[in-house]
Predict the structure.
Amino acid sequence: MTEFIDCGSLSISYDATGKASVSFTVVKNTSGELIREYDVNYWGGQKFDCILTNISQKPIVGSRTWYEWGLQMEGVAD
């Protein structure tokens, strides 16, 4: 199985209280569950501790086995 984050899809924003909203797309060559857990990650030298608030899966058009997983999370930067 192959699974990776589409780096161009990464979006991080902060509100006035410091809460981080993080979203990105994971590309995977099967429709089964994601291999990695994405609630703690490092982006741009910053560690983020988040909870998953939304996840969606859709097939990649023109492909028989590749899927995009849209993940949205909220949390804090450590």
Residues 3-77 form one domain. The CA atoms of residues 23 and 72 lie 4 Å apart. The radius of gyration is 13 Å. The chain has one domain: 3-77.
